[in-house]
Amino acid sequence: MIAKVVVGVCFAYLVVNLFFLRLQEPTKDFPDDEEHFNATLSNILKPRSPGSKGHDEVRDFLLLELKRLGFDTHRDEFVDEITFTNVMGVMNLGSPNYLMLTCHYDTQRKRGDNFVAATDAAVSCAMLLNMAKTLGPYLREVFKNRGDIGLVLVFFDGHDLLELSVDGENGLYGSRRFTESEPLPLENIEVMIALNLIGAPNQSFRSHHESTFSLHKMMAEIEEALIAEGHMQKNHKLFHIVQDHNRDFEDDHYQFLNEGVPVMHLVPHTYPKVWNTVDDNAENLHWPTIQNMNAILRRFVHQYIENHDDYVSFRGD
Ligand SMILES: *[C@@H]1O[C@H](CO)[C@@H](O)[C@H](O)[C@H]1NC(C)=O
Ligand SMILES: *[C@@H]1O[C@H](CO)[C@@H](O)[C@H](O)[C@H]1NC(C)=O
């Protein structure tokens, strides 16, 4: 009888312990660092058209920050009418496959001293750095033992035209330069994800390319999961599982698309109301969207790398 009770108590003790052990298992969650995001954004949020003082400052800031976060940095200065500089950070250089995330850091010329282009694309650039910061310890550790995948962040220059553009026409000097000079072999880029125009109210995101529809769905599922876990700010849903594969608009990814690199355009369905005006500033940003996008992107990159194996291909072969 006593033996039975002892066994019973021991068993219960074991169950309770296992239960708490499970609870204490480190979740694969990486906390926000909004202080870092805000500081990063404020370093970028200034007029930064090619050739200006602000442009030089932002270029140097990006390089410094990438280095600080553990990336190998690459600064590609080139002349195409005027001088431009692409900025790149690579983790696991020499990998046969890269997950590449990009934004453009230049602003349009001739739009005045107060034109800071918050959604176009200061927020996107700050998001990339914030992702690398919040995943930092994981990224630095995981790439010590991985031969299958590397991470690349590219900050393109010369996205905008040198003259005032009217209806969304672009210069794409930086992305053209990249695909022509191949600082990384294009065939090693598993997927190129271009972020732009993020951070305004009422944004929704659709899939624009069949080859990367699975990644779009992954973003939507991550958003659902984060909401269910209570990790999201109160906001409307950002990712919609909608195949808008016949429609997209020109951005840096077009250069890569032309070269057969699988692309994803992480861009809202509609242009921000303040787009190309001096009101595209910090005041008019929509913070729940930014906070939630940061959380989604972070988990996306983590899952992409965690679940990656040697046989991932979006090239349809
Ligand atoms: C970041 O900036 C936003 C907008 O100014 C503000 O609402 C938020 O509290 C800031 N976050 C931190 C951690 O300072
Ligand atoms: C966003 O959508 C809401 C509800 O549909 C609307 O009231 C608001 O004016 C919209 N805001 C912007 C900036 O488009």
TrEMBL record:
Query: Which InterPro entries does the entry mention?
Result: Peptidase_M28, QC/QCL
Q: Which domain of life is it from?
A: Eukaryota
Task: Give its E.C. classification number.
Answer: 2.3.2.5
Q: Which reaction does it catalyse?
A: N-terminal L-glutaminyl-[peptide] = N-terminal 5-oxo-L-prolyl-[peptide] + NH4(+)
Keywords attached to this Swiss-Prot or TrEMBL record, sorted alphabetically, are: Acyltransferase, Membrane, Transferase, Transmembrane, Transmembrane helix
The record lists the membrane-crossing segments as 6-23
Q: Which GO terms describe its molecular function?
A: glutaminyl-peptide cyclotransferase activity; zinc ion binding
Please report the stretch or stretches of sequence annotated as the Peptidase M28 domain: 86-300
Family, as annotated: Belongs to the glutaminyl-peptide cyclotransferase family.
Q: Which protein are we looking at? A: glutaminyl-peptide cyclotransferase
Q: What is the lineage of its organism?
A: Eukaryota, Metazoa, Ecdysozoa, Arthropoda, Hexapoda
